[in-house]
Amino acid sequence: MNEKITESIFRNELTKNGYFANDSIIVEEQKSNYHLIDKLLKNASKKGVGKGFPEFIIRSEEMSDFLIIAECKADVKKHESETSDQYGDYAVDGVLLYSSFLSKEFDVLGIAVSGQNETELKVSHYLFLKNTTKPHKYFSNKILPLVTYYDEFLKSDFKFGYDYDKLLEYIKDLNELLHSKKIKEAQRSLLISGVLIALQNIAFKNSFTSHKKPEQLAKNLLSTIIHEFTNANLPIDKVNNLKQTFSFILTHTTIITDKDFFIELIKSIDDNINKFMRTHKYFDTLGQFYIEFLRYANNDKGLGIVLTPPHITDLFSEIAGIDKDSVIFDNCCGTGGFLISAMKKMIKDAKGDSFKIKQIKNHQLIGIEYQDDIYALGVSNMVIHGDGKTNIYSGNCFKLSETIKQKFHPDFGFLNPPYKSKKSDIEELDFVINNLNTIKKGGTCIAIVPLSCAISTKGEILERKKNILSDHTLEAVLSMPDDLFHNSKVGVITCVLVIKAHIPHPENKKTWLGYWREDGFIKTKGKGRIDLNNTWVQLRNKWINSFVNREVVKRLSVMEALNPDDEWCAEGYLITDYSEINYETYKNYVRRYLAFRLLNDLLDFKIDKVAKPTEISNQLVHLSKIFNVKNGLASSSVEVREEAETENDIRYIRPSQSYSGSIAGYVDKLLVDDKHIYQDQTIYVSTDGQGSHTYSYVSSFEFIPNSNVSILIPKDKMSLQEKIYYSICITINRYKFSYGRKPKGNRLKNILIPECPPDFVYNQNVFQEIFEGWKKIVK
């Protein structure tokens, strides 16, 4: 076998794909004339010492930060080693080595090629982002044109993630700068949006640095913003309102007195934000500035709304299955996040048809926003992304919806309505019904609302649930992650409603309920809640596939026929698999229970022998069939001491994610009614607290529970072993509950649990096994 043959095949592939026909593309072999590349390869030898010599080094004058490196091997068996560190012998190993050195200054695509003919040729691609060491496998088994590689690289999820992280760092620094310059939180996003709009104007972009006085620049900036809004065909009264909203530019002391700051700010916005937006089109960048500024603000509500995270706005478009002909309506559009995500998907479906893309931007994306400041951001966002056009209306959606309906005939509605903070606020479901009434018959409305809108079974919400089912079809309800709005500093638990408009819900039709509470995003210091491990895309695809096909998947989805007075969420119907509790799991719980008793000198207790019942089945039954449920005593009714002071002081129990942590203090039992005092070996359940709910324990002491703890009293004689088993059963149902859906009252009573524990629970030797194990450790 001859490696030169492999190199020749690769060279021919480059020729077929136009690499040698383009004067801006430079293809070099073994070494580079570019001093920076040569410097980076100085210590990249496959042998560990000395210079590295890749087979091919490809770069372009038009893509100066992007490199392609190729390594060739004659034998396909030498394509990739199992350890990826046989640099001299395997194509993949070698290209990964070279790429890791070059990625210190470049975005690098490493291509590994092996084989002696085109039929057997193996090709692998690996992307390294600048200043990173993690390779991302990408592309197929074919050599592609350079422009295709580069375009796909720019559109890749990991490139977006890297650039987005950089943008967040910039936002943080910019926020600190604007704070130091006394620019208020509510004005920062507006100032940035105004600069971005003005920079679209070529005359402004070419001249802003030439102003001698900052007052002149401020006047030019505002007049340019208003000029662009006027060109967007906005009504004159709305333009005047926007002029008033942005007028702080003319009066803010820093802006009109500090010329250097003002000019550098505009340059900085152009260099960082415009660059990001050029690379990652149709992303709600202004919305992210708004969210990020909120995270560093002293007040929680900022401009007064909660914006939907971008991965969820994209998810809506996937759920809806929109295409280039869809007409999208958002009656609570905020900064336009849903509309921009929809625009991205619709333009992709247009496949480069410029006329259709213009139609999408000019006529197929409609929004309404009530708050003036947020309307200004929404209009700005759509003008920036929509080639200077917008169909964002300012005003009351309940008054404007008929106009929208008659003029645009929308067939999809997306919304995240304002969440109620006081009793007099408009119900969230009223906004959903307004959206439904605006879209066509058979159209789809998708709304993210507080979980309470789906699970409430009385009052105003029940009446609206009745209205929805009588006039429309509830296709799906999707439970969202608990901390979805962490970046907006809001803790509301939400779900997504998917509703088909103007077709009454058929009797006995089942609704698909999805348990989508784990999206893989992680809360991080400084960056908020992010897709740290790059798992979102794969998980999203799994969610969408299961939704589209209405699949019933364990711990993920169910189909249920629902009435208005039912809970509309998967958590109420998912069945827990108790076979996950094996003997080792059970033994570990017993061990922790005994360890607490040992450490707290509570070993004087009785272990009853109980045989397994012979006439009870292994079927699941409601918890209330086995237990009576009792409620605890409010902390306002007792005096809690930090330590026990007399022999009458007993432990006072609160919700906790740990056994020892559930002890809140001590209470004099002589001052408490006997009905609130419970004995050793009693099961108790935490019924409140985001981090504490549903954890269940068996007491090893006499105690009094607080009002957020429920007590389970067996209806029949029950051994300690059985009680520990049932406490495990209840705890593993934690995934069904949240701060928005607490395990209280009927929800707790209706948990399905095994009527009879498995055989291993009746192993009387479990305690002896644990004690014997401890003796060995002591020896």
Write up this protein.
- This protein is 39% helix and 16% strand.
- The chain is α/β, with parallel strands linked by helices and 779 residues long.
- Among the domains are: 3-152, Trna Endonuclease, Chain: A, domain 1, CATH 3.40.1350; 579-774, DNA methylase specificity domains (Adenine-n6-DNA-methyltransferase TaqI, Chain A, domain 2).
- The strands form six sheets. It has a nine-stranded mixed sheet with strand order 9-8-7-10-11-13-12-14-17, with helices on both faces.
- Helix 6 packs across helix 11 (259-279), helix 13 crosses helix 14 and helix 17 (397-408) runs parallel beside helix 18 (428-438).
- The longest helix has 24 residues, at 157-180.
- The relative contact order is 0.05.
Summary?
By secondary structure, the chain is α/β, with parallel strands linked by helices. The protein has 26 helices and 26 strands.
